[in-house]
Every structure is written in C-alpha cells, then in structure tokens.
Amino acid sequence: MASRKLFVFVSSLLLISLASFPSITATTYQPKPAVHVVVEGMVYCQSCDYRGWSLTGATPLPLAKVSVVCKNNVGQVGYYKTFQANANGYVYAELEGNKMNRALDYPLQNCRVKLVSSPLQKCNLATNVNYGIDGAHLRSEGKSYTSPNYNAVIYAAGPFAFRPSGCPYTTRH
User: Fold this and answer.
1) Which of the 8 DSSP states describes residue 16?
2) 119 preceded by cis ω (within 30°)?
3) Per-residue pLDDT tens for 42-85?
4) d(CA 118, CA 116)
5) What does each C-alpha distance from 40 to 45, 134, 139 come to in angstroms?
C-alpha cells in the first residue's frame, strides 16, 4: 500500500513537471528572413528650358533603364544588373545576392548606379545629372522596410535624367 502511494506521488510529480515546461519538440526554429539590399531612385526627361544639372520642369521617364555595378576591393566587376523604371519613372532595384546578414561579396561603397537607356526617341541623351553617366554612389537615407517575411535596407541614387536631342541652342546674355 505504501509503495502504491509512493508510485502515485512520484507519477503526480512527474506529470506536474512535464506540464510546467513547454515541450522542446513543440517549438520550431523560425529563421529570420534575410535582409535585402535595395536601391531606389527616379529617372526624368530634362526640359529644354533648363539645362545642366537642373531638373526644373523635368517629367518622369517611364520604363527607362539603369544599371547597378558593384566591384570588389580589387576593382573587378562582381555584380551587374539592369533595372527598369516603372510607369512613373521610379526604380526599385533589389540587389539579389547582396544580403546584409552575411559578409558582402562586393561592399556597397563600391556599387554605382548609371543610366543605360531611354525608351523615348525624343528624350534619349543621357546626362550626368547626379552622376548618371559617371555612376552615382549609393546614399544611405536611413530607410528600411520590414514585414514578417521580408526585410530590406533601402539606399538611394539619383535622381537621374535624359534630355532631348533636339533642344534649340539659346544664348543667354
């Protein structure tokens, strides 16, 4: 009889201890999503009325193309991809392969954004506004996007501009 009471007592303690601690097999490891690197910017068609570095009077250039080129520390190109602007001239370029949660193969300070092409024949001369021809370095503006399944650090470049080839030459006094 005493052994039966001891058995019930020990069994009760065991059940209480199992109920008090969550099961290790019940919890699964949820890895955090990778942090993506994104570059955003705008592409415009520059007005004939304002030249040089001015974007006064410029209109968004839909479907223009820009490239992102990243070089390693020895100067070798390790990443190159072209991206197309949307219907409003906005470019959202996710740099696939450059993840922030692992060592970057090509440091972001070695990445540049350049103009590639314009879909409009009447506005297809690339300008060096904000280094669109030479290549603009990425700017950190402290932007990011976070959701349960997607995290991104967003850098900026530009705005860039193409200009019409048929602008009349004017002399200003």
Assistant:
1) H
2) no
3) 999 999 888 788 899 999 999 999 999 988 888 888 889 999 99
4) 7
5) 17, 18, 10
Amino acid letter at 45? C
pLDDT tens per residue across span 107-159: 788 899 999 999 999 999 999 999 999 999 999 999 999 988 888 899 999 99
Left if phi > 0, otherwise alpha if psi is -120 to 50, otherwise beta: which for 8?
A: alpha
* Tokens 């919890």 belong to residue: 27
Beta strands in the chain (DSSP E): 35-45, 59-60, 65-71, 77-84, 90-99, 111-117, 125-126, 136-137, 139-147, 150-156, 160-163
CA torsion through residues 136, 140, 143, 145, sign: positive
Cα 171 from Cα 168, distance rounded (Å): 10
Cα dihedral 72, 77, 78, 81 sign: positive
Per-residue pLDDT tens for 151-172? 889 999 999 999 998 887 665 5
**The whole model's pTM is what?**
0.74
